[in-house]
Amino acid sequence: MTQLVTMMLGDTEIGIDVGTVEDVVRLGRVTRVPLAAPWIAGVMNLRGHVVTAIDLRTRLGMPPAPQGVRPKCVVVSIGGDSFGLIVDAVDEVINVDAADCRRCPATLDERWRQVSSCIVQREGGLLVELDIGKIITPDRFFMAA
């Protein structure tokens, strides 16, 4: 059994392993980083720690959030570093059995398939389980000079 934090990005429900989540906060002031990849929104100060903010909409080639959306930031830890995943909304923590996790179908958009580990059939539709290691790729943090 795995626990996932569920979030919304556009009309897609996504989830990440609760074990990687450090915090969920309102998106605060983000300072741009020169020459950073377009999907790096910048850095932010979270209780005295520098957190790299990742705009998941940009990372996945989605349009900007519509007016009125108040983005949330899901702070995850990988390799001792903290990253803030900017999402439209954070919902709940759910339990998922391994048997409920299905391979991503060929019909799933390639952008989603590249960053997901599986899909989960839920009562309201499908949930895409994200693989944080596929989203946060240090080799792509900066633009080529």
Descriptive report:
With 145 residues, the protein is mostly beta strands. The chain has one domain (2-137): OB fold (Dihydrolipoamide Acetyltransferase, E2P) (Beta Barrel). The protein is 10% helix and 49% strand. The protein has three helices and eleven strands. The strands form two sheets. Strands 8-1-2-11-10-9 form a six-stranded mixed β-sheet. It has a five-stranded mixed β-sheet with strand order 3-6-7-5-4. It is globular.
Assigned CATH architecture:
Beta Barrel
Please tally the β strands and state the result. 11
What is the strand arrangement across the widest sheet? 8-1-2-11-10-9
Average predicted local confidence, pLDDT = 88
What distance separates the N and C termini? 45 Å
Low-confidence stretches: none
Brief summary of the model shown:
The protein is mainly beta and 145 residues long.
Keywords:
145 residues, single chain, OB fold (Dihydrolipoamide Acetyltransferase, E2P), 6-stranded mixed beta sheet
Topology diagram in text:
Blueprint: E1 2-9, E2 12-17, E3 21-26, E4 40-46, E5 49-55, H1 56-59, E6 72-78, E7 81-87, E8 89-96, E9 101-102, H2 110-115, E10 116-122, E11 125-130, H3 132-135
Parallel strand pairs: 2-11, 5-7
Antiparallel strand pairs: 1-2, 1-8, 3-6, 4-5, 6-7, 9-10, 10-11
